Fold each of these.
Amino acid sequence: MATPAAARPSVPLRSATLDNGLKVLIREEHTAPLASVWCWYRVGSRDEAPGLTGVSHWVEHMNFKGTTNIPRDQVKGIIEQFGGTWNGYTWIDQTTYLETATKDAIDRMLFIESERMARCLYEPEDCESERTVIISELQGGENDPDQLLDQELTATAFKAHPYRHPTIGWLSDLQSMTRDDLYGYYRRHYIPNNATLVIVGDVDPDDALRRVERFFGPIEAGNRPARVRTREPEQLGDRRLVIRKEGTAAYLRVGYHAPAVADRAFVPALLLDAVLTGAKGVNLWTSFRVPPPQRSTRLYRALVERGLASAVSGAMLPTAEPFLWTISATATDGTPLGAVESALLEALDRIRREGVTDAELARAKAQLHARMVFDDDSVTSLAHQIGFFETIASAAFVEQLPAAIAAASVQDVSAVAGDLLKPSNRTIGWFDPE
Amino acid sequence: MTTRGLAPARTVLDNGAVIVAKESGKTPAVSINLALRAGSIGDPPGAAGSTYLLSQTIDRGTERRPASEIAEALDDRGITLSFGVTRHLFSVVCTCLAPDVEFVLALLAEIVSMPSVPESELATRKGEAVTTLRQDEDNPAIRAVERLMSLLYGSEHPYGRPARGTIATIEAATRESLLDLHRQRFAPGELSVVLVGDLDVQHVFDVARAVFGSWSAPSPRPIDVPHPAPAAERRRIVIPMMNKSQADIAYGFTTITRSDPSYFPFWLMNNVFGQYALGGRLGDSIRERQGMAYYVSSTFDPNVVEGPLLIRAGVSAANVDRAIASIDEEIAALVRDGITDKEIAESRQYMIGSMPRALETNAGIAQFLQTSEFFGLGEDYDVRLPDRLHAVTRDQVHDVARRFLAPERATIVVAGPYEG
């Protein structure tokens, strides 16, 4: 018979900080002859000033366009030669880059990331070419009504905090930003003391650290940019928006201001989301690609089983500062959005008044546990988790999460439901097709 | 992966069901990839989408358990379960914690062999399916690809008709029609179950024998899937969707079967043409040099009969003509000049070198083994694959490009804010 499904033994994380301030986190993982290298920067769309929205993401694109020592025509294939893949993403708190390849590519991966940190080219013609690529990315997103609604809802829920604007940026900013805007932003934020380098894989930590020193040690530290200090004022009344646009399906999205990852209310909120919509785990790289177990959840029963919605989902995402917990539902063909909204708010009001049950909490905990086991299945995924949480809080969060989940009580989750689900804390968005 | 390769264990039950198992200690979990040769090609005439609708209802009640009991059993254990329908396969993909594998196998056996399709569940699932189809109507990418497949194969061909059906066919489906479809197409001889993870091979074979071994059903009648006639001329169709911000281009050809001797040259050619790094040659031209698209690539999907080569790109309306012209130019260059020594070496190295990544996770291994099982590639396919790629020559690649690709025989669909 199989071994019990305990979390696998914790592998110690080798942690070091280079003289230039680069934080390095290394974990041995010998299940496959692979290594994954991620370089995380504490810069995301929340760091963007008006007029420069989208700059973090555009900079990410530019950082795949060649460096002093990687000529433009040698970018293609630089990691594919090792059977590897590379990618990057930008979100509200962070920008990150990764390579996963066979372990013999470790020097190549570190070389790429060290070049990316200090020596990207930003050729004017590449900036122009990428402008239209990014506008194409924006327009592709606009083709999806649900994505459009998400963007509008976030912009309505926040009036002060820069989480309000989309990571892709506003179109007019993308049309007007200059090469020097991009390059200046890159130079300010891409410094070793604003970054975390993570290595997970079939490596020897001491050897890996020596290699990191060799590639990154010569890069000079810079002045770490201050981050925006604005705090979103408490929302004083519920907000609402309606998008009326040609379309074939109606979408509802409701957002509540939610705790940041380091807030003690975060784990209870994660469990509340699991009770209502099913556990997704906390890995943005993997777990959100697979639908959660959710047929016994409150909102699935209230909306989908009653035929009001064809789908419902929730997102309680780990963020550095208070973001939104959102619930999305697609109205079944012919069902008015008002009917979906009423059923949703009724279910939320009930859990706010009555709290959660022991059985619901036990199920949510079992689901989260399973999800975290499933998400530990690749060096890429493990490395993502270490860097993601180190960038928004602490790498230790991942290690501590199982205990925090186990410790959360019915009272803790019910209290968060009572606080979070206040009508004055919510924003309701409709995509109501014409 | 070692030099010995995956080396899965395989057994065939007396009723014909195939069980494949591979122990892997990466996580205390098991990935199960179950497939029945009962895909959408089995949709009855005039009832496209029936298999898809069955996939949405099959786990909503069995002869032994109501839907609510199944839902709670899955949710209590955090089990991830999803159903998919391709042209030839009805698939169930599941991940569970290692101690739950026995329970899950028993449940899956019940689900695939004795669904009850309660009327109330069917009504709800039909509502969801109709809503999904309405969403698809507003999705330029889906509209473009579905229309392209219909043009390449014909609107009634099993590869050309919409796998999710139409609103009319979904609404016309009944409990009896779905149970009838199940009786006609689902049988143990069509089943293969692949399990990968923290498991004991002999134990899962014993469990599988206990839960699937008693299933008895006659083999379904074979379905004749006609070979498509290659396009004789260039076709270009526009689906105006003026409410959209961007246009989707779908551009394609019919190609070869998976068993065709040209499979490996074709696969390599497609990697060079529309996959390698950021979209191969297509990506170099349309995204990198011209900055026209966020995404552009080509996919090659050989199948039991000749599958498609499908090129897709999302571009602004103003760039539709230029993007199509660029695709034409890249195809013309490929047909005229073939690929270079450097290109074939790079793609080959990548395709072989990326195998440890593809086979890193339990789910990745399970998918690989299931595909090998379906196409009869052999249990040691992962070991033999590098040699097959090494054997491909530039001339072979050039030959398939000349035989199958030609701008003058391309079928092109554009959907989006563009009127042609």
Amino acid sequence: MDFLTWGRNPWGQRILTHISWDLFWAALFAGVIFLVAHASYMILSSNRKRGKAETDALEAANKDLPEMITRHSFMARVFHWVMAFSMFALLLTAFLPIVGIRFAWVEWHWMAGLLLTASIIYHIIHATFFMDFWSIWIGPKDIPDFRAEMAAELAGSDDGPKTGKYPLGNRLYHLALVVVGLSVSISGMVMMSRVRQPIFERNPYILADTTWGFTYVLHGACGIALVGLVIAHVYFALRPEKFWITKAMVFGTITRRQYLEHHDPRRWNVKAGR
Amino acid sequence: MAVIRDMMPVFELFQPASLEDALALLDQHKSDVWVLGGGMDSFDWLKDRTKRVSTVVDLSQISDLRGIKEVNGGLEIGAMTTLTEIVNNPVVKAKFGILAEAAEMVASPQIRNQATLGGNVSQDTRCWYYRSGWSCYRAGGNICYADTPTAINREHAILQQDRCVAVSPSDTAPALIALDAEFVIKSAGGERVVKAEDYFLGPQIDIMHMTALQPGELLTAIRIPATMANASFYWEKVRDRNVWDFPLVNVAAAMKVSGNTISEARLAVGAVAARPLRLTAVEAAVAGKPRTEETASAAGELAIQGAVALRYNAYKIPLMRNLVKRAIRGNAQATT
């Protein structure tokens, strides 16, 4: 299996052109294997939420909480689904031609890319000024939690620490998406100078051949990574024990009981309003 | 012109005697196989070592791929039929003269004796950057060297430029589109038939291939229906040299004219885009109109809508306009 594709520039020098498309199949395979492995593991694993008695007690102590708690605001949901739509459009326009389904993909691809970039910019502003910015990032505080979670997992216990709004896995996934998403978006914007579009005059010579090669490799590698990341994300969204979170991304709310069962109210204080 | 090194690389040569054997070989070797027809395009690529394959399948021994036969008032032409055979065929000349005229304009007599109809329509583009082995989009790279502010692109596309601005160099392709031909494609898995205009692909669909042939497939025959038999034809090719030159622009028109009214028209232009373009908008605009200077002028203007010049090929825009105008108007010297 090749990783990279090389060509020759007009001076006969060997230059990178793009990643090898073998990697697409590798990413697809890896995503499916992860899916199968995790699904198999989950058959044996326990569902780590609070027990009924503990949750009943918490509910009784938090009767002032509303029946339905806002998990995602309307604009947060709009952003998520716009990003999801643009991501699917990008992946389909990128990889269907690779597997032999021929159609005029380039225009749709960069238009979806512009939509993704706009949604990313919106999200950065929205998350910075209107959401709890720090709730999504990982830090040193997560290490003891991670150890405790692993210990509970290995013991088959439900007694591990409950999370804030976003579990550690969630936040690690978001971090991966930040790196990959920003890289693919920025490299894509640079690559817009290669194609005919109505926004600005194209100039394929803004970078040297070698630099273009790296840009294409970065863009392709990020695209490949997104294949695996999207498979994982859709999988988790459809998992039965996570479906209440998925519904929250559509309707915006979770029940008070779900909040108390899965989260630590001290870490995600809904009374504080974010 | 590519640098000619004249050193044939090593490959395994198969010379099947039957179509079935040829298809089996193509199915076995899939994408690492070169199909050899007349060799007029192949030997350049192979000797220059710009393209390298491990296997070459020579179709010259397959008699089923040759010949011209009448079918239901139309014709079925084997893909390995030479251009000279087409030029000299009495039925082609009598009923589908535009094809004979187009075939006679290809290259030189010596080349036409060897070149095949299937090869002429399936040949690769002549863009010199691509032919020189540079890693452009068409070669699997990530740039078009011809589509830059400093490129030498005198013979490149003015329409449907989409990252690649190479043009289709075939002379017979526009004529076949004008005749509403169908291309018969066979593989080990079966047969499919595509309309002539659908056989050719633009870069927006597939930037690395000129035709709709998939790995393992072979163009076996071209069928020309009786629809446009004995219609009023117009064929013209503009080139730098009077012989042995690819088109700068060529035009093929087949029209049914009643009195002086155009009842039906089929029009195609070559060498202005990566595939020969059927001008459906022009066809619709002239249908039912008189065959006059006014109609022709309007058709010419309509044909070039959306044309964008590169650095050195702006001349192609008025050239294409004028050729379409002449095709609609008719010209005593150029019609058959």
